[in-house]
Write a structure and sequence with these properties.
The protein has about 280 residues and is mainly beta. The chain folds into 3 domains: about 80 residues, Immunoglobulins (Immunoglobulin-like), CATH 2.60.40; about 80 residues, Immunoglobulins (Immunoglobulin-like, Sandwich), CATH 2.60.40; about 60 residues. Helices cover about 0% and strands about 45% of the residues. It is built from no helices and 22 strands. A hairpin with a 4-residue loop joins strand 4 and strand 5.
Length: about 280
């Protein structure tokens, strides 16, 4: 007889008969209980937690690998909520026209409790530039969702980052007028980059990236390592840039992020001299 479930999902019963005092075997297969749906909620504030709430801010939720999950808008109190989530690691971001682009914030849902998160947006006091566009695959021009777009300013600092949506679209708001290098990267593709200048005459610039799928060479060379703090703790989700070092000139050729244990890797590299630079993104 097949086991039948009682009112409690983790409790199974099985009818067993003992005949002529012979031993009987009763096997019960316990199915793991499905985790309860979790909620990620919080508030988006102006300048600092406890400050003025930001209404109608766009809050996006991504899986740890960059795949888009969902988006919501904040209410008049700056409140947002994502319901029916599974226990996992996520990335969350907030954006609104007139505010500086915010960095992606890692969050982790576990157990049976909801997570309340505060996000901060800083209003633009100088330039109000915007960089936007799409990320497509070179072969058939299909969208590349979950691609990471980093914007590096003229001082070499990360000025903003975003992830492309399911349609391949992205946008970075609230950028100071400056010269930038924009880089798009996705796991199985080669990076694409472009130079862009934002000014009062040209405050909004569209950059469409085309990513080429990486080929698997017969002999693969790679560069990898770990990012750690002075006390030896790993530094996760930090920006890592790879530069060629030729004739005293460093040229950015690839970008990646460190993993949860601080590990990074640049695959499929030809022979040559390289420089690695890393920067921890503000939380």
């Amino acid at each position: 007889m097949q086991p039948t479930a009682t009112d409690t999902p983790q409790t199974l019963t099985n009818a067993v008969s003992i005949v002529d005092k012979q031993p009987a075997i009763a096997t019960l297969t316990m199915q793991p209980t499905s985790p309860l749906p979790l909620q990620l909620s919080g508030f988006v504030y102006r300048i600092s937690p406890g400050g003025e709430p930001v209404k109608d801010a766009l809050v996006c939720l991504y899986e740890e690998n960059g795949r888009f999950v969902s988006h919501v808008y904040t209410d008049e109190k700056g409140y947002f909520a994502f319901d029916s989530l599974s226990p996992a690691a996520y990335l969350v971001s907030a954006a609104k026209e007139g505010y500086h682009a915010a960095s992606l914030l890692p969050v982790s849902l576990s157990g049976d409790r909801a997570l309340l998160q505060e996000l901060v947006l800083q209003p633009v006091t100088g330039g109000k530039g915007t960089v936007y566009g799409t990320v497509q695959e070179e072969k058939d021009q299909t969208p590349v969702p979950g691609a990471r777009i980093d914007l590096i300013d003229s001082s070499g600092n990360v000025a903003g980052c975003a992830l492309s949506s399911e349609t391949g679209e992205y946008a970075l708001y609230g950028l100071a007028f400056d010269r930038y290098t924009a880089i798009a990267a996705a796991g199985s593709y080669s990076c694409d980059s472009a130079a862009v200048t934002l000014s009062s005459d040209q405050p909004s610039v569209m950059i469409n990236f085309t990513l080429c799928a990486k080929e698997s060479p017969a002999a693969v060379s790679f560069l990898s390592g770990f990012l750690k703090s002075p006390d030896g703790a790993p530094i996760p989700l930090a920006w890592v840039g790879l530069y060629t070092a030729e004739e005293g000139i460093n040229r950015l050729v690839a970008v990646t992020m460190s993993s949860a244990d601080g590990y990074y890797v640049f695959p499929s590299l030809p022979d040559g001299e390289y420089v690695v630079k890393a920067q921890a993104l503000p939380q």
